[in-house]
Specification:
InterPro entries: ABC_Transporter_SBP, ABC_transptr_periplasmic_BD
Keywords: Signal
Number of strands: 12
Distance between the termini: 59 Å
CATH superfamily of the largest domain: Nitrogenase molybdenum iron protein domain
Protein name: Periplasmic binding protein
Pfam families: Peripla_BP_2
CATH class of the largest domain: Alpha Beta
Order of helices and strands: HEEEHEHHEHEHHEEHEEHEHHHEHH
Largest sheet: 6 strands, mixed
Amino acid sequence: MKRACLTVMLGLSLACAEPVTITDADGNKVTVQDSSRVVTLGGPITEIVYALGVGNRVIAADTSSTFPAAAQALPKVGYQRSLSAEGIIALKPTLVIGTTEAGPPSTLAQLRAAGLNVLILPAEYTPEGTRAKISALGKVFGREAKAAEINMGIDRDLAKAANLAARFKVRPKVMFIYARGPQLVQISGTGTAANAMISLGGGVNAVRGVQGYKPLTPEAAVTAAPDVILMLSGGLESLGGVDGVLKLPGLAQTPAGRNRRVVALDDLYLLGFGPRLGRAVQDLTLRLHPELAR
């Protein structure tokens, strides 16, 4: 009985907390009055909510929400870029949080038309954008002090990574390859999370003149001549490991291919731009400059 009463009281306190107003990605003011039942769209958003210590309020998430482990057990509402409104509405959330990567726009419009409170934050692939997301969600959940602590940790780790990378005059040329089996292999140009991470990690994007992603071709591989091939762990596995990667047309003839320099990191860890950003940049810096670890 006591536990039931406490649960009810906690729910009421969350529902009746002081309203918080946040400016969303479109410049609109979104007022949050109840954060007791949250649906998170996007791995970085889910990870931030858990890092703030309020993961118990998340009732469902999208399929890219793979960290922390507790998030993997949540009911899933589909992939953030191809959502369906019906499943989310049926959960009766008091708040839906995502970034500009969430969509399609018609689904978000349906959620709002159904009376759901939807907060969409900018998906910026920068340390500043990451800190802004964390600060905004810290305000939403009344965890401003925790948000500041997380951001300070990110800054410390980024400073360490920058100091490491500064020790080398030559920045390796890095080609990021996104793969989901041999039938879907793309390379990353500018305007992507991968491009931003390569720069933060002390590398240079080997792919020039490309905005976003484009299919890998033998000509593109040879022209880019990467020193390092960077991939997501899942993508590397989908190709059968390093040997499978080097079977892709043109890659074996590159410096990275000849030296078998293929670096792979977890998907959300590498490209999430969430609470672990600083650690991920440090890790990537060491992978791109292996002499630092000696």
